[in-house]
Structure formats: C-alpha cells, structure tokens
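New to this. Help decode the following:
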Amino acid sequence: MTQPFPPLACLSGNFAPILMECDAHDLPVSGELPRALRGTLYRNGPNPQHAPRDDQYHWFIGDGMVHAFHLGDGRVRYNNRWVRTNKFERERAAGHALFGSWGNPATTDPSMQGQEDGVANTHIVWHAGKLLALEEADLPVEMDPHTLATRGNCSYGGKLPGAMTAHPKIDPVTGEMVFFAYAATGPFTKTMRYGVVDGDGRLARLEHFEAPYASMVHDFMVTQRHVLFPVMPLTGSMERAVRGEPAYAWEPHLGTHIGIMPRGGSPAQLRWFRGEPCYVFHVMNAWEEGERIVADVMQYESAPLFNAGTEGADNRARLCRWTFDLAGNTDSFTRAWIDDMPGEFPRIDERFSTLSYRHGYFASRQHEGTGRGTYDTLVHLDLRTNTRRTHQLPAGDAVSEPVFVPRAPDSAEGDGWLLATVYRGAEHRSDLAVYDASAIEAGPVALAHLSHRVPFGFHGGWRPAT
C-alpha cells in the first residue's frame, strides 16, 4: 500500500506533489490574451509519486513533472505529465519508492543497485526539433512537445555517455547548444564534461577535465568565444551520504575557482581564476568586451538550502557582475553588485544569450510572510538606464521564474511578454500570468485559470508555434 508523505516543509503546501495527470482543452481566461502569442510554455519541477525511503529527502530530488500551456488564437490548452524515467517506471510498478535520496546505496533497494535513478525534474528546453527534460546528474529525456509522452533518454546516437547540465546555453548566432556536466565519471567525482550539440542536433564535441574539487555546479557561462566553469565550495561526498550525513556540504575554506576555456580550444587551455567563497545557482548572462569577460550572476554569500550555519540568516542572492581581464597577469577577478533587491531565477531575452544585453528579469521575495524558497514579486531591470520595475503579488500568492517571449522574431530586445505561473494561496490553485514585458508594474494583461495547483518548480522554456 502506498505510504503517506512525511510532514516535511519541502512536501507541504504548494511544495506538495499533485498525484494526477490531466488535460484541460480550453482554460478560462480573464483579460485579453495577445493573439500574436502562439506557442507553448513548459514548466518542470519535482513532483514525487511516492513517499521517500529515508530522512535525507530534499526538494531537488523529486520525480519530474512537466506542465504545458499551449497558447494560440486567444485560447490556452493545458496538460501535465510525469517524465517516465527508469526510476519512475520501476517505482510505479512496485507501488513504492525504491531509490534512496541522492542515490544513497545504503537506503536504495538492493534490486536497484546500478540502475538509472535520474528524475529529469529541473529544466525543459527546445533545441533542434527535440523537447528535452533536463536534470544535471543524468541524460536528457526527450518528450513529445504536444502530448508530453516520454520518448526516452537522448544520448545523441549513443555518443553522450551520461550527465548533461540542466542549463545548456543555446547560441543565437550559431544555433549550437553548449553544455557541461559535473561528477561526469560517477557520483561526487571531480571530473567535468564539456560538449556541443550543433544546430542540426548532432553531438559535435565532447571533452573531459578535472575540477579543483568535487562540487555541485548547477549553472555555467558561455560567451561567443569562451566558456566559464564556476566551481564553488558546495562539495559532494558519498562517504558523508553513507554515514547518514548530508551528501552535499558547504566547505568555504576551498574558495571559489572559475575555469575559463576558449570555445574552440581544449581543456589544456583552461585558465583558473580564484575568488572568495560564494555560491551561484543561476547565471543571467555573460559576454565579451574586448579582452574582458563580463558575467552577471545571482550570487549568495554561502550555499542556501545546504548550509546549516546560515539558517535564519538573510542569505539571499543578489545580482552581481563578475569581470575577468584575460589580458591581465592575475588569477583574480572583480565582483560588483548591480542591484540590491534579492531574487532568483534570472532570465533574459534569449536572443541575446552570450551577447551584450540590456533587459533582465527575475523573481524576488518582498512580503515578510512569504516562505523561504518562494517568491512573490517579478522584477525587470533595464541595465542601460539603471531602472527597475516590479509587480508584487498579494500576500499569500507566489510566482514562478519568468520566461520571456519576443513579440516577433525580429522585435527589439525586451519587446514581448513575460510568462509565469502564479500560485493563489487563498484558493490553493494556480494561474498562468501573461505580462507586457515593458510594463510589468501594470500587472498581467491576461490570466488563464487552472482549477488545481502547479507545484513550486524550477525552470521553464518556450517553444514557438510552427
């Protein structure tokens, strides 16, 4: 018999999973949905189907569920599906969890030792005709863009041997998808992987190298000529996990290391820059200015969610600019705060990924009563005029990461819409919110109303209609 979920914060409220898959063919819409908005917004996040086997369960490791909002002609169709990973299918057949948290062999059913335990729960991207559900420790999983049926692991013809980041960068100039992976030769190893999928969907490059130490590296940076690998002191250890301690822990004495490599070069050309300990889950963008590389990142003073010493402290991320002088005779880099409003889930108009950009967007927490790890305010920064626009939701509501959609393929940067899901706390359900990206302070121009919740998740992607 299926066991009830334990009363953990990461399994309660809108963090709790929904235990259904459904289709809604015509959602009620208030306001006016732009008729030029044609395509699909996908959202991915943890939605465990079974109660965990041990007390090391973390929000990051729940089974992936994808939510899709298909927009066109002023109407919205919705469907959601679990990603049918190997882990999901085996646990569905058994009727209970089989894998320990973080793949811990001490709490994994002996029959599952050596089995794939990926959850494909972090991001979802559209590239070269494939819709890919991503999670950084395992292969991408391809899904049908219309039905969300799982098509299986995507190994690019068997050429990709394992993990790929949840945050690949798609070059708007070449059409390439640039990616990396940490722990590339097994859990908590310090080997990293770098790869490129060309615009036709072929794996064109794959390299491996050793990082200074084994670290959780969630995101990275790509410019037109370089790739940057940030290794920060959130370290992984199987020995800790087997002892019943956290698999990931904060070890600030190791410092921050940023490896920079020419995109057309080799790992032998990696140049490591060093800085004070900090942590970054997400990058806004990176680009070149002559012999300098500039990267805008959401920087924490220490790793949240994994660092018991910061419980109760205001350790929230803020947008910070890192600058590297490639012509200088130093291994240091500069850091300067761009904006003092804390936030997370930074996004841009992705037609300017790897290039100098003007407009950035993120989610922030402003109400005192808004829970840790959730957000109630959308933020738009104009980096040219140094102005900030915001839209704050009513107390008790929460907003997802915003996703920018251009009004037309050749529209000016920032001319388009922001799409986000909004959790309505008083009604215990969710809406899809559509904002004019240049006037978010006016509130949504349209809302599509669901009768159920979209649980708090991570990232989303847009696929334009063909």
